[in-house]
Write a structure and sequence with these properties.
The structure is a single chain. The chain has 12 helices and 22 strands. The protein is an alpha/beta fold. Strands 1, 2, 3, 4, 5, 6 and 17 form a 7-stranded mixed beta sheet that branches. It has a 5-stranded parallel beta sheet with strand order 8-15-9-10-11. A hairpin with a 5-residue loop joins strand 12 and strand 13. The longest helix is centred in the first third of the chain and has 21 residues. It is globular.
Length: 471
């Protein structure tokens, strides 16, 4: 059987795989990039980019509800052409995918970029679909993930929609149950509700959007729940009606819908890999144990990166993991790298944010909380978006900023500011000495920080806390 030898084999050409390839190329190693299925990253093809396109359309259309109070007439006559909106979303999606490919795999020859599935047949060797085998000194495994659909639901065919199918819809159904109210469920659920779909949101958990702070969760449920009903705390069961529509039941609630959007999370793409042939220990999910600072699996010449590990399924984290895995796969010395401050954004309206240490992970009695309700914030009132709550956490003695959770307009910007400050290990005292312009949403963060400053032990020197004395 034909066998080819390379220094490094990268399996998967998504965000993690492409970043790994960049590091391997920089080291001058002989490599192959192997990819089964459609090329292009999950983000560009079915994830963060096309979802933001449809969210923008929905938000623009939703703004018509404010026109009358602003003295703008005719808003009630505006309509949205759903097929054209979906085509616009696909056009943007295709642009993003083309950009990814034109900057990466389009420049690779067929013997370097191999578009086939690969399976390990023994340590150090993978077999391709055409029977060719590739032996490599080291492997980067970055095969990504796939939306979860319960086996029983597959019988309902195209009436069950995941992100893999959503953006191919030429039209939207009149009604839809969104099952799973994490990032994707909330983002697309709210978007299609604003575009006229009758949406019901369902989740087994009592919290939405990954929130762990009970006060923020309460605010989020109140805000989002005004746009479509939220059924929380019960799993969903689906049955078929006589007319072919689907009845979705959760606890004592039941609704009949045209389609179900399944946003139950994603499972790692492991089934084709043959990891059982490598002699490595796998956990209950079939994922090998790995070091998140080196991405190495045990002491094997194998490196895991991206959504396949199910740890931090976010694009910038996948990129960092790919860089780490690619660097270590291309060098004799294994280097450990610090991971960045955790940062997660739900692009709902308002944004739902977690940054740094989440509320549920804080050590009890070790921290203080600074809070600001968005309702009275001047800039939020002007925008017609004065809904939500900001909660920031700091160590009660040192005043060091630990994390935050919030639901707030412009939260994506506030989250970055806090992530940078947390990574620099700044204190709340240092933050209140930073400039805050007026009127901006950052003033809401300033108010939360001021409240927090008065609760922690560490204080700034000088007679005015917000200003540094001159020497």
């Amino acid at each position: 059987m034909e066998e080819r030898k390379v220094d490094v084999a990268i399996i998967g050409s998504g965000t993690a795989g492409l970043n790994a390839m960049g590091r391997v190329k920089r080291a001058g190693k002989d490599f192959v990039l192997i990819n089964g299925g459609e090329p292009g990253t999950t983000c560009a093809r079915v994830g963060c980019m096309p979802s933001k396109a449809i969210i923008q359309v929905a938000e623009d259309f939703h703004r018509r509800g404010l026109f009358e109070r602003e003295g703008i007439e005719g808003g009630e006559q505006l309509k949205v052409n759903i097929p054209e909106a979906m085509e616009h979303t696909r056009d943007l999606r295709d642009t993003f995918v083309d950009r990814v490919l034109s900057n990466s795999t389009d420049h690779l020859s067929e013997d370097v970029f191999i578009q086939q599935y690969a399976r390990f047949v023994e340590p150090g060797v993978v077999e391709l679909e055409d029977g060719q085998r590739i032996r490599a000194d080291r492997f980067v495994i970055a095969t990504g993930s796939t939306p979860i659909v319960p086996e029983a639901w597959k019988a309902f065919g195209d009436r069950i929609v995941t992100t893999d199918e959503f953006f191919e819809l030429e039209d939207l159904p009149a009604s839809m149950a969104v099952i799973g109210l994490g990032v994707i469920g909330l983002e697309l659920g709210q978007a299609i509700a604003r575009l006229g779909v009758e949406v019901t949101g369902i989740d087994l958990a009592e919290n939405i959007g990954g929130i762990t702070d009970p006060e923020v969760n309460k605010a989020a449920i109140d805000v989002i729940g005004k746009e479509f009903p939220l059924w929380l705390g019960h799993g969903a069961e689906i049955t078929e009606e006589a007319d072919g529509r689907l009845r979705v039941t959760a606890g004592e609630n039941s609704v009949v819908v045209d389609k179900v959007f399944a946003s139950l999370g994603r499972r790692p793409n492991l089934d084709r890999l043959g990891l059982e042939n490598l002699g490595i220990e796998l956990d209950e999910r079939g994922i090998p144990a790995y070091n998140p600072n080196t991405m190495q699996i045990g002491d094997h010449p194998l490196f895991l990166a991206g959504d396949i590990n199910g740890d931090r399924p976010i694009l910038h984290e996948a990129g960092d993991e790919g860089k780490i895995a690619g660097y270590n796969a291309a060098h004799d010395e294994i280097r450990a790298f610090r991971r960045k401050t955790p940062l997660a954004i739900v692009f709902s309206d308002p944004n739902i944010i977690s940054v740094g240490t989440r509320f549920a992970d804080l050590k009890p009695d070790s921290f203080k909380v600074g809070e600001m309700k968005v309702a009275p914030v001047g800039r939020a009132l002007i925008m017609g978006k004065n809904r939500g709550t900001i909660r920031v956490y700091a160590h009660k003695d040192s005043g060091k900023i630990l994390g935050a959770e919030m639901i707030t307009p412009r939260g994506e910007n506030l989250a970055h500011l806090l992530a940078w400050c947390i990574q620099k290990e700044m204190t709340v005292g240092e933050l209140i000495q930073m400039p805050f312009y007026h009127p901006v949403m950052e003033e809401a963060l300033q108010a939360a920080l001021t409240s927090l400053y008065h609760q922690v032990e560490a204080k700034n020197s000088g007679p005015i806390a917000e200003l540094r004395p001159m020497d």
